[in-house]
Amino acid sequence: AQKVTQAQTEISVVEKEDVTLDCVYETRDTTYYLFWYKQPPSGELVFLIRRNSFDEQNEISGRYSWNFQKSTSSFNFTITASQVVDSAVYFCALRPRETSGSRLTFGEGTQLTVNP
Amino acid sequence: DSGVTQTPKHLITATGQRVTLRCSPRSGDLSVYWYQQSLDQGLQFLIQYYNGEERAKGNILERFSAQQFPDLHSELNLSSLELGDSALYFCASSAGPGTGGTEAFFGQGTRLTVV
Question: Within an 8 Å CB–CB cutoff, is residue B105 touching chain A?
Answer without folding.
Answer: yes
